[in-house]
Amino acid sequence: MALLRCSKIQVDKAYSRADNVSTLLKKLMNITGMSEQ
């Protein structure tokens, strides 16, 4: 059970990290888009 719990936490961390990366990319795209105009 402990192993399953640990792996679930790691998966949650990975997903949250992916969300952070996608939001960061969106912010960067917005910044570059604004500078281009």
Automatic annotation (TrEMBL):
Q: Which domain of life is it from?
A: Eukaryota
**Protein name as catalogued:** Uncharacterized protein
